[in-house]
Amino acid sequence: MENQSLNSIFKSGVFTKIIEIVNILNSTPPPNLRWRHHYEHLGPTLVKIYPSVEVAPKLDLKQLPTHLRYAFLGASESLPMIIASKLTSLEEEKFLRVFREYKTTLGWIIADIKGIRPTLCMHRILF
After folding, report:
1. pLDDT tens digits along 12-24
2. How does pLDDT run across 18-47, given as a tens digit for each residue?
């Protein structure tokens, strides 16, 4: 019975039409890929960028909801962290002690992220 259905497909010309469509698709060139990545050499950095732990960046702190507040890891309100406002003073002190110990692993600016050159980082919206 299978042979009869296959024979009917071959005789009806459906198979030859499928082969023609496959050949047409294989013969057309690939579409022009408009969204290829193009990289430009940006040259050497003229301004030395220091990590936030050495030179704290000037940050614009936004108003937070009532259940959150800022805590600072650095001196003179630098290196901000957002924490829950319901933490007790002991919980907050323990939390900040751990984060102060590992503050070099956090990134406040792109220069803080190890392995990424800030001159290569840029945001571009493609239309």
Report:
1. 677 788 888 888 8
2. 888 888 888 777 666 666 666 666 666 666
Inside any domain, residue 12: yes
Structure tokens at 14: 């459906």
Phi, psi of 89 (to 5 degrees): -65, -35
Residue-wise pLDDT for 94-119, tens only, equals 988 998 888 877 776 777 777 766 66
Does residue 7 belong to any structural domain of this protein? yes
Strands (E), 73-127: 80-84
Instruction: With respect to residue 112, please indicate whether it lies within any of the assigned structural domains.
Output: no
Report how many domains make up the chain. Answer: 1
Per the structure, the complete domain to which residue 23 belongs is given by 1-29
Domain assignment present for residue 48? The answer is no
pTM: 0.50
SS3 at position 69: strand
74 vs 57: CA distance, rounded Å:
11
